[in-house]
Amino acid sequence: MSKNFAKFFLTLNIFEAFLVDLCTGFWANATLPLMFFNPNYQGFFGLFKKYHFGAPSRFSEDGNGLLLFSPAQKEWSDLYQVWNMALVVQFPQSVYLLTKLLIPSVSRYSDRPGNYMHQRISALLLAMNFIDMAHHHPRTKVDISQIPPFPKEIIERWGYINELSARDYMRLVRRT
């Protein structure tokens, strides 16, 4: 595997979600450090050279997982987790999208932060398949299309708190 595997793909994916935050008016949640300090961070177009670098991508020792490392990976994963939570609650079926981040296989990453994205991507795939199946082949009496997004006030407050967390992350990465 290339040591830069997923570096640009993940940054592009975060950028797309960043644009959603901007277009929906949740500017505070648009967390730029997640893009700037992407996995394998070695400088962002010459910017932030004074900051700590990430590490190359690699497979886990058992070969069953992808490990990605941004600077201060555990704190990067923390920031990604809360930012993504505030992003997904903007949409209908938000409870199912939020679940992909709260399940233990994703949320218990503190002792293995490099594995965070692998677990999160796997959970996202399962959540999206569930939502697709629930729309097209319902087996329950619950109409998931009727589940609304979270209230705007909650999302705005969550985004503001995430903005403060992003500043803390920037300070941490600069000190390390």
List its salient traits.
7 helices; mainly alpha; single chain; two-stranded antiparallel ribbon; 176 residues
Q: How would you summarize what this structure contains?
A:
This protein has 176 residues and is mainly alpha-helical. It contains seven helices and two strands; from the N terminus they run ααββααααα.
Tell me what you see in this structure.
With 176 residues, the protein is mainly alpha-helical. It contains seven helices and two strands; from the N terminus they run H-H-E-E-H-H-H-H-H. Strands 1-2 form a two-stranded antiparallel ribbon. Helix 3 (73-88) runs antiparallel to helix 4, helix 3 packs antiparallel against helix 7 (152-175) and helix 4 (94-102) runs antiparallel to helix 6 (116-136). The longest helix has 24 residues, at 152-175. It is globular.
Topology overview:
Blueprint (H helix, E strand, L loop, with lengths): L6 H17 L9 H4 L18 E5 L6 E4 L3 H16 L5 H9 L1 H4 L8 H21 L15 H24 L1
Antiparallel strand pairs: 1-2
Helix pairs in contact: 3-4, 3-7, 4-6
The portion of residues forming beta strands comes to 5-15%
List low-pLDDT spans: none
Amino-to-carboxy terminus distance:
27 Å
Strand order within the widest beta sheet: 1-2
Question: Helix/strand/pairing class, anyone?
Answer: mainly alpha
Number of strands: 2
Shape: globular
- Mean pLDDT, all residues: 86
Helix content: 40-55%
Helix count equals 7
Order of helices and strands: HHEEHHHHH
Largest sheet: 2 strands, antiparallel
- Please give the radius of gyration in angstroms: 17 Å
